[in-house]
Amino acid sequence: MRLHVGCAMWTHARWQGRFLPGQLPPGERLRSYATWCDAVEGNTTFYATPTRATVESWAGQTAPDFRMVVKLPKPITHEHRLTGADEHLHAFLDAIEPLGPRAHALWIQLPGSFSPADLGTLSAFLHRLPRSHRYAVEVRHRAFFEDERSERLLERVLAAADAEWVPFDTTTLFQSPPTSDAERDAWTKKPRVPRRTRALTGHPIVRYLGRDAEARTVEGWRPWLDVVTDWLREGRSPTFFVHTPDNADAPKLARDFHEAVRARLPALTPLPEPEPADPLTLF
């Protein structure tokens, strides 16, 4: 029984010396992060397709069962809107090949303007993709969350391709006005959609956004403890990503979520002990 947890990135200035060694070179930070969490969002690939050498470095720093949910590049999803982007897609698929099983799912994050009227385009795109990968789709148009017919149509499109629907749960953030600069920034950028908890496949993926205050983040994820526990009992293998507006404590919070689920399911495989942020000394 395995629950994978992680963050939106594997390096952050405020993690240095706290979760990761302070003087760690960039090329070793994923390895250190992977002792804290066993999954990560591959957000950087949205902005640029990495070189194979870079991806080989990612693979060399992680175990084969480490999960990377890798985002398709912006030219494919936002500029070409899933049509006429074969050159970008082939370059991306070639670049990430060294990840092997670490590429847990390829993440298709669609713009907020991608509506139910575009579902034919999504269906055609999903059916052109190679079956060697698992796929997960994130939509942001409110009709998919508020109109039952649109929701069911999207579920049918995804089910036909054995693809998952990735919810981005921002409800905790928007429960009350922001109290920090990071929260104010998140208010202007993050989607404001209802919470969704239905899994379509055996590998559900959740993106959860809390608040900068730890207590409010923990309070906000309580509904997910029930959902994730039920998924595990059903034999599913979920991945849960913890975000906060400043992400300062995200690795610890991800582990805390895992421990909260494990308190309900003692048979859940524990996370390994993280390596210390700084070398231990005798004096």
UniProtKB/TrEMBL annotation:
Q: Which Pfam families match?
A: DUF72 (PF01904)
Q: Which Gene3D superfamilies match?
A: Protein of unknown function UPF0759 (3.20.20.410)
The record's PANTHER family line, in alphabetical order, gives: UNCHARACTERIZED PROTEIN YECE, UPF0759 PROTEIN YECE
Query: What is the official name of this protein in its record?
Result: Uncharacterized protein YecE (DUF72 family)
The species this protein belongs to is: Nonomuraea jabiensis
